[in-house]
Amino acid sequence: MSLVKLNIKGISYSQTQNGAYALILNEVDGDRKLPIVIGAFEAQSIAIALEKEIKPPRPLTHDLFKSFADRFSIIVKQVIIHKLVDGIFYSSLICERDGIEEIIDARTSDAIALALRFTAPIFTYKNILDKAGVYLDIAKKPNTEADPEDVLSDIVFETEEDTNADTNNLAHLSLQELNTTLQEAVVNENYETAAKIRDEISKRKA
């Protein structure tokens, strides 16, 4: 079975599952997206790894695993989403130590959080993408077994209006106030707010 490389498109909220998020993976050489429902902690960990300028005051579990692996010369070479059963994705970490390769089972959310920290590529098999991959542009008709509207029915994407509202609130703050608010958000481990504040600061410094 051939492997298909994926990258991370983004994270959005789940409308029907409290405390759940949808991680959207994108086919590198195509237009299909692979939505995976993950928990709030894993979503936060992935978001922090994506926002490299935000440093948590305390290491998260995946940061601790990375430090542990570095100390004992363990490398995560790649992540493979290898199975889909009853809507649940199963993944493997392909690791290496002293030239010996090992395969370790992992939850997909944990595997991707670690892949980001090791800058390891993420893959899935073509048959999984054929079954669960969707087109966010509904005008395109995917040749898959999954109906995009069914797969994405419980996902609420952030609208442009919501984004503008957040930006307008931050626009009233001075640069010094933004930096103070950013530090408070990081200390309180409110990383979603911290990311928006950082974007506003970067925009003003550009």
Q: Would you give the CATH topology of the largest domain? A: Bifunctional nuclease domain
Secondary-structure element series: EEEHHEEEHEHHEHHH
Derived structural class: alpha+beta
CATH architecture of the largest domain: Roll
CATH class call of the largest domain: Alpha Beta
Distance separating the two termini:
46 Å
Shape: globular
Q: How many domains is the backbone divided into? A: 2
Task: Tell me the radius of gyration.
Answer: 19 Å
CATH superfamily of the largest domain: Bifunctional nuclease domain
User: Number of helix segments?
Assistant: 8
Query: Mean pLDDT, rounded to whole units?
Result: 80
Percentage of residues in helical conformation: 40-55%
